[in-house]
Design a protein that fits this description.
This protein is an alpha+beta fold. The protein has helices at residues 2-17, 21-32, 37-43, 53-89, 108-121, 136-139, 172-180, 221-236, 292-297, 314-322, 335-338, and strands at residues 126-127, 133-135, 164-166, 185-194, 206-216, 242-249, 252-261, 281-290, 306-313. Strand 6 and strand 7 (252-261) form a beta hairpin. The N and C termini lie far apart (96 Å). The structure holds 3,4-dihydroxyphenylalanine (DAH). 3,4-dihydroxyphenylalanine binds next to strand 8 and strand 9.
Length: 347
C-alpha cells in the first residue's frame, strides 16, 4: 500500500510537469508497461495471503485508471500548448505586400466571337452549335453542292472517309437547325472549321467562322442588308461604310460579298494603303438569300419560306480589327502576344 501511494504521487507529479506530447508518451510507456511499477505490483500479488489479494488487486486497478486519466489530461494540455506555440510562431505579418494575382483574359478570337454575337443578339439571333466531324450531306449536299460539282474544289476538304469530312464551314449548322425545327429561325453558328490549306500569314488548316441564318415567311434581301448594316456599325463603328458586291455560293441565290470601308485610309485607298490594297474596301463576309434547293433538301416548301444567310471568318475580322499581320500569331499561344487583347478593347 505504501508503495502504491508513492507511485501515485511521483507519477502524477511527473504528468503535471510534462511539456510535450513525447514526455507524456514516455511516462505512459514506463509506468503502464509490463515492466513498470504497476506490472510488478500485480505480479507480486501472489506473495500476499489469499484473503488480501482481491482488495489489493482492486487498489492496483484503481490506481491504474487514475494514472491513465491523469496522462490523458496531461496529453490534452501539452497538445493545446503546442498548437498555441505553433500559431504564435507562424503568425502572419499583415503588413507584407500581397501576392499579385495575374488576371487572365479571353483569347482574341473569343473576344471577336463574343462581340459579333453581342452585336446580333438584340436582333433575335441565338447561338447554335453543330459537329466538327460531319457527314458529307450536311456539309455539302444539302447546301446544294452536288457530288463532283466544281464548287466543292473551293473548299479543300479533309476527308475522314468517303462520306464523312471535317466540316469546311459552319454552314452545316444551318442544315441541322432547319432539319430539326420549323421557321421562324434566327441562329448564329460559331465554331471551328477545317481546310486543307498550306500554313502562311493568312491561312491555317483550322480556323473559325460564324454564320447567321434567318428564315421566316417574308425575309427579303432588304432585311439582309439592314441586319448587316446594324452589325457592321456595332462591330466596326458607325462611321464605317459597307457595300455589297455580287458573288456566288451554291447555297444562296442571289449571293453577295460584303465589304467595309478601310479604317486605315478612311476608304480613300490613298498612299498604297496596305490592309485594303489601295481599294478603300475590305471584304469581310459572304451572304445571300437561301437557295430554294436548300429549303427543299431540309423539307421546307420554298414557296412558303424565305430567308438569308451570312458567314465570315473570325481570324479575318480579328486581323483587321487589331492590325495584326500574321494569322499564325493567334495559334502560337505566346502570352506576350495574347496578353495584349482585353475584352471591350475595340480597334
Ligand atoms: N460558308 C461560306 C464559306 O465557308 C461562308 C458563307 C457565305 C456562309 C455566304 C453563308 C453565306 O451563310 O450566305 O466560305
Amino acid at each position: 500500500m505504501e508503495d502504491l501511494k508513492r507511485i501515485e504521487r511521483s507519477v502524477l507529479a511527473r504528468a503535471r510537469r510534462a511539456k510535450a506530447p513525447a514526455d507524456v508518451a514516455e511516462i505512459r510507456a514506463e509506468v503502464l508497461g509490463k515492466k513498470g511499477p504497476l506490472g510488478l505490483a500485480l505480479r507480486s500479488l501472489g506473495e500476499l495471503p489469499a484473503e488480501e489479494r482481491p482488495a489489493a488487486g482492486q487498489k492496483i486497478n484503481q490506481l491504474k485508471g487514475k494514472i491513465e486519466a491523469a496522462l490523458d489530461e496531461a496529453h490534452a494540455r501539452v497538445q493545446a500548448n503546442a498548437r498555441a506555440d505553433e500559431l504564435e510562431s507562424g503568425a502572419q505579418d499583415v503588413t507584407l505586400p500581397g501576392r499579385r494575382v495575374v488576371p487572365g483574359n479571353p483569347h482574341p478570337l473569343r473576344i471577336v466571337e463574343r462581340d459579333i454575337i453581342r452585336a446580333l443578339e438584340s436582333l433575335g439571333f441565338a447561338v447554335a452549335h453543330g459537329p466538327q466531324v460531319e457527314h458529307d450531306w450536311y456539309n455539302f449536299e444539302a447546301l446544294n453542292f452536288p457530288p463532283d460539282h466544281p464548287a466543292r474544289d473551293t473548299q479543300d476538304t479533309f476527308f475522314v472517309s468517303d462520306a464523312v469530312v471535317l466540316r469546311t464551314h459552319t454552314s452545316n449548322v444551318q442544315i441541322r437547325t432547319m432539319v430539326k425545327g420549323k421557321p421562324p429561325i434566327r441562329i448564329l453558328a460559331p465554331g471551328m472549321v477545317f481546310r486543307h490549306d498550306e500554313i502562311d500569314a493568312t491561312h491555317t488548316p483550322c480556323f473559325h467562322q460564324i454564320e447567321g441564318l434567318w428564315v421566316d415567311d417574308k425575309a427579303t434581301f432588304a432585311d439582309l442588308k439592314g441586319v448587316l448594316h446594324v452589325f457592321a456599325a456595332r462591330l466596326f463603328g458607325p462611321e464605317r461604310k459597307v457595300r455589297f458586291r455580287p458573288s456566288f455560293f451554291p447555297f444562296t441565290e442571289p449571293s453577295a460579298e460584303m465589304d467595309v470601308s478601310c479604317a486605315l485610309c478612311g476608304g480613300s485607298g490613298k498612299g498604297g494603303c496596305r490592309p485594303c490594297k489601295g481599294t478603300g474596301w475590305i471584304e469581310i463576309m459572304g451572304a445571300g438569300m437561301v437557295d430554294p434547293a436548300v429549303f427543299e433538301a431540309v423539307g421546307y416548301d420554298p414557296e412558303k419560306v424565305q430567308g438569308f444567310a451570312f458567314g465570315m471568318g473570325l481570324e479575318r475580322i480579328a486581323l483587321l480589327r487589331w492590325g495584326v499581320d500574321d494569322i499564325r500569331l493567334f495559334y502560337e499561344n505566346d502570352l506576350r502576344f495574347l496578353e495584349q487583347f482585353r475584352p471591350g478593347d475595340t480597334r
